[in-house]
Structure formats: structure tokens, C-alpha cells
Amino acid sequence: MQNQSPKRRVHREVVSFVRRSARMNESQTKAWENHHERWVLRVAQGETETSIAPQDPVDWAAVFGREAPLIVEIGSGAGESLVAMAKQHPEANIIAFEVFQPAVASTLSRMAREGVDNIRIVMGNGEQGLTHLFAPAPISELWLFFADPWHKVRHHKRRLVSADFAQLVRSRLVDGGLWRLATDWDDYAEWMREVLDHAPGLVNAHLDPADPENTGWAPRLEMRPVTKYERKGLAAGRTIHDLTYRTVRDDD
């Protein structure tokens, strides 16, 4: 009997999310079948199901059929805020990264109900998506709302907001581009401040030492709706923290 070659071990990268069940209900299945070919963009996959392989940057104008400012959201969930905010930005092409198929299917359903056509969804790791799918400095805004806080100290390495990720974001935003963040966990909010207030090429848009009223915390983004997740955090007594950072050139 011929010896079988041992299976190649797949390297599991450290990621900022946990995989959940991919089982879809009837309405999600219908939404997926009806809309994924139009609104879900297929990209080359890496070794794992949610990874994105190195490849040439995407021609986003060709994908959307128009030249327009690019906005990216990482972790769009079921699209509750994504679709509402995209409806308020008809002038923008919006790319959302989400790894959970049922959540993507729910987003597709929302898009169809609301008549929103300026979103394309990539099912994959958002950090790898920024790395591989975009050339330097095409993005006007990046949205990161309610990312997993990874409370335990030994899991802090899985937090998406880090010094390395900040430099990646800076490299993909246009000069003067905005990175908008929100969290309902105090410790993660302070972590983000510590990392991003000291990140080269990023400035806190609401931190002004000359004005004690501008403490660095952004006012709540009016166009961002209060989602089901956010309502749960408020009901539990947690505070919502918003932050906004702007890219600057080294000589600014």
C-alpha cells in the first residue's frame, strides 16, 4: 500500500474575531441566493476560510461602475448601521468587510429593502483586505464600530486596534482622511486612545490642548443609528465612546 503524503498544516493566524455558526435561516438564505452575486465581491482566498490572499489591488471604479470617494467599514455585522449610513452617502462607494455569512445575508436583505446599491461586501479578514485589496491612499473614511474588545490580557494581542494596524490604516487613507471608531467598553476606549493618540501620521480630531472642552472624545456621530447591539450596551449601563482620527503628512 502506497504511503499517503502527510497533510500540510495550515497556519492559523491571530485574528480579531471568533468564527460563529454559518447556518442561515430561511429569509437569510433567500436574500443570499437573490443578491450575493451582485453585492458580494469574490476575492482570492488565503489558506483559511476567512483569509485574503496577496493579490493586485482591486479596481474599485470598475467594481462599482463609477469613480467615487471610497469608504470602508470593517466588521459590518448585519448591516444595521452600514446600510443606514450608506443611504446618507449616495455619493460614495462603500466596501464592507464581514466574515459571517448569515450577517452578510441580513445586510443584503437590508440593502434590497432600502434600495441601497452603493455597497459591496467582501467576506474576509478586514486587516488583510486593507493590505491586499487597496493601493496606497485611496480611502476617504474608515469605519470601525464596536470591534471585539478582547477583555482578557492574554487576548489583547487579538485586538484589531494596534500600532501596526494604525500604520496600515494611515497608509490607506487619503491625506486628511478620517478614521471613525466607537466602542461601549471603557478599557478598550482607553486602549484605543493610548495607541492612536501616539500613532505617527494620525491626529485626534477632537484633542486640543488649548481648549479644555476638546478632550479627545468625539461627539456621537449623528449619522450612525443606534443599533440593536448598542442598545444592549446602553441597557447594561455601558458608556458609548466615539473617536475620530485624521491623517496628516509628516511635514504637517
From TrEMBL:
It is an enzyme of class 2 (transferase). It catalyses: guanosine(46) in tRNA + S-adenosyl-L-methionine = N(7)-methylguanosine(46) in tRNA + S-adenosyl-L-homocysteine. It comes from the Bacteria. GO terms for molecular function: tRNA (guanine(46)-N7)-methyltransferase activity. S-adenosyl-L-methionine binds at E73, E98, N125, D148. Keywords: Methyltransferase, S-adenosyl-L-methionine, Transferase, tRNA processing. The keyword Transferase applies. Its EC number is 2.1.1.33. Substrate binds at K152, D184, T227, K228, Y229, E230. The keyword S-adenosyl-L-methionine applies. Pathway: tRNA modification; N(7)-methylguanine-tRNA biosynthesis. GO terms for cellular component: tRNA methyltransferase complex. Catalyzes the formation of N(7)-methylguanine at position 46 (m7G46) in tRNA. Belongs to the class I-like SAM-binding methyltransferase superfamily. TrmB family. This is tRNA (guanine-N(7)-)-methyltransferase. It comes from Luteococcus japonicus LSP_Lj1.
